[in-house]
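Hi there,

I know you've been waiting on this one. I reran it after we fixed the sequence typo, so this is the corrected version. Both the input and the resulting structure follow.
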Amino acid sequence: MADVQVTCINKRDRNSTHEGITHLGNPNAGWKWTRAEVIASIEAKTNTFFTMVNGNRGNIGVVDGPNGKYVRTYADGKWNDNLLALPECL
């Protein structure tokens, strides 16, 4: 299992604070996956994913929401929006 850092995201509407993430990636590591691929990898336990914000690690988990599954970071014992603060993947 690889421990993979996410450094960028793509959203349907970049300016929306709650719009769904479509892709996650790390250009320095040479990858960009769809949200569905990341969710499948987490659920299959083939990879773990995380962000680093202000030197703090946020582990990425899967949440089964009312509109389907989505990814969210978990740090310091609580869910947070670290993913939404990441820059756009090119």
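Quick highlight: Helices lie at 35-43.

Best,
R. S.
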